[in-house]
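Researcher: I've been going back and forth with a colleague about how Sensor histidine kinase might be arranged in three dimensions. Neither of us has a model we trust, so I'd like an independent prediction. The organism is Actinomadura nitritigenes, in case that matters for your notes. Sequence below.
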Amino acid sequence: MAGLDAALWRSVAVYRALALVYAAVVIGKNSGGYAHPLGGWAVLGVLTVWTGVATLAYRDPSRRGWPLLAADLAVAFGCILATAWVETAGHIAAGRPTLPVSWVAASVLAWAVAGGRRLGVTAALVLGAANLLVHAVAGTAGGMGNTTLNGIVLLFLAGLVVGQVVRLAREAEARLARAVELEAATRERERLARRIHDSVLQVLAMVQRRGGEAGGEAAELGRLAGEQEAALRALIGAGPGTGPAPAAAAPRPGDGGERETDLAPLLTGQASASVTVSTPATPVPLPEHAAREVAAAVAAALDNVRRHCGDGARAWVLLEDGPGEVTVSVRDDGPGMPPGRLDDAAASGRLGVAQSIRGRVRDLGGTVSIVSAPGEGTEIEMTVPRRSVASRV
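Model: Here is an independent structure prediction for Sensor histidine kinase. You can compare it with whatever you and your colleague have in mind.
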């Protein structure tokens, strides 16, 4: 960003210097017809001095604040008004340009670079008012010609267009910096993945294999090593674009201004040798609070599988991204539940499903459907509408 800003301010300085040369030519050509010729040369002196001062001052980023911008605009405003005293009323009525001519546009450009199109248009309006005051002071308001109006319009367009271009350029540079950052992160991830694959993953795979062959307590150790291997493979296999959304990510329309987080990596992080997680290839963004609550509900459902279905049970997590809602289902191949089991658990104070799963999803404006039967496993389907989520969190 510093490189872009420096280039923009250099461009303003170059324009200011070239416009000064043009103003000097115009003043030198018209000075013989001025009511106060010395006044014209005095204005040229002010323009020259301020061109040098502004060029040096704008080089320092710490000085590009309101005092310098206000002084820049005040100098341009005063030099325009000086035209009413230096020029004759007849020349002003005939449409002769103001003393600084196009030099004053440098102030508009400076404001546009500093604050975008809004400040650029504001500066243009102030200097446009100065042009109108010249005619009012000289008593030629009724004879204001197209030259003055054209100058005011050009100032307005300069502030608007340059301010918009500057904003777009800064956004493009920010996106480029983000792309470079992601590329560097991808390369680092790939480097770490190669080293992990060549060392840690191979050791875990060997422990899993040898533990299964040895049996007994070693088999349990092998099972744990296998789960860690699967989780680590999922972690290093996730691309850089599947992580949580950056803190500076813009809110989506209708989110109430909350930052978004990709739900997919929050779920894939819970994968293991006994848990398979399937997500779309593209990110599934949700408001950060909602995404973490859904992930916590899934974690609670998987914890129930581990507690009640035994060590050999498997679970499958499926994430579906619909146009207006997000659906997550957790299915296991455990023994299932008899009818009324959840109601009995809630009545006896065991509120894992009622609070950790249903309560979380309900607070997000979603619904939970649980289908289970003895010997057929259990499936928990959680559906969260995007718009309801945004309005509730």
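Researcher: What would you highlight for our discussion?
Model: I'd start with this: Confidence is low (pLDDT under 50) at residues 241-256, 346-352, 388-393. After that, consider the following. The CA atoms of residues 268 and 277 lie 6 Å apart.
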